[in-house]
Amino acid sequence: MLSQKMKDALNQQVLMEAQSSQAYLAMGSWAEIQPGLKGVTQFFFRHSDEERMHMLKLIHYINERGGFAVVPALEQPALTFVSLKKAFEILFEHEVKVSNSINDLVDMALSEKDYATHNFLQWYVNEQIEEERLARDCNDKLELIGEDKSGLYLFDRDIMTMNGGGKSGF
């Protein structure tokens, strides 16, 4: 059974995953109206779906362990971005924030000797390693491309083959 403190913290992570899904959904909607970014659009929409699945995994875990998972109200995410590069910078910063939150949960699970939750969270730890790596790779590629339109064309095409090393990644 989960402690009240752990239930509350896991429900905060549910909120973070839901907000991630909303943010990436908004990025996808923005990308969809930009000319020539079909690959990037699909990338953001797919990532939004995966963040929702991360949220659902937490919800099921909380409920299975005797808690009550709360479906959170969400704030409006950013709807527009000054550039594709800026959107990916925001994505990377957000993934680092999620990683820090997961690490805090792992630390809490260990301090409470809640080894079941610690074990459950290892999937998220591994997932965040992959997601940060992929976001960093995308940012590195966009930095190399700069303002080169042909490079952006190739990035948009290639982003569909990028993944989190066989995990759900983006």
Note down, in words, how this protein is organized.
The protein has 170 residues and is an all-alpha fold. It has a single domain, classed as Ferritin, core subunit, four-helix bundle (Ferritin, Up-down Bundle). Helix content is 74%, strand content 0%. It has five helices and no strands. α3 runs antiparallel to α4 (115-145). Residues 164-170 have low confidence and may be disordered.
Concise account of the structure shown:
With 170 residues, the protein is mainly alpha-helical.
Itemize the secondary structure elements and their pairings:
Blueprint: H1 4-32, H2 38-64, H3 84-111, H4 115-145, H5 149-158
Give the terminus-to-terminus CA distance: 32 Å
- The number of helices is 5
Number of strands: 0
CATH structural architecture? Up-down Bundle
Integer count of domains: 1
Secondary structure category: mainly alpha
The CATH class is Mainly Alpha
Q: Percent helix among the residues?
A: over 70%
How much is the radius of gyration in Å?
A: 17 Å
Shape, please?
Answer: elongated
Give me the CATH fold name: Ferritin
Q: Low-confidence parts, pLDDT < 50 over ≥5 residues?
A: 164-170
Question: CATH homologous superfamily, by name?
Answer: Ferritin, core subunit, four-helix bundle
| SSE order | HHHHH
Average of pLDDT: 94
**Biggest sheet details:** none
Strand content: under 5%
What keyword list fits this structure?
Ferritin, elongated, 74% helix, mainly alpha
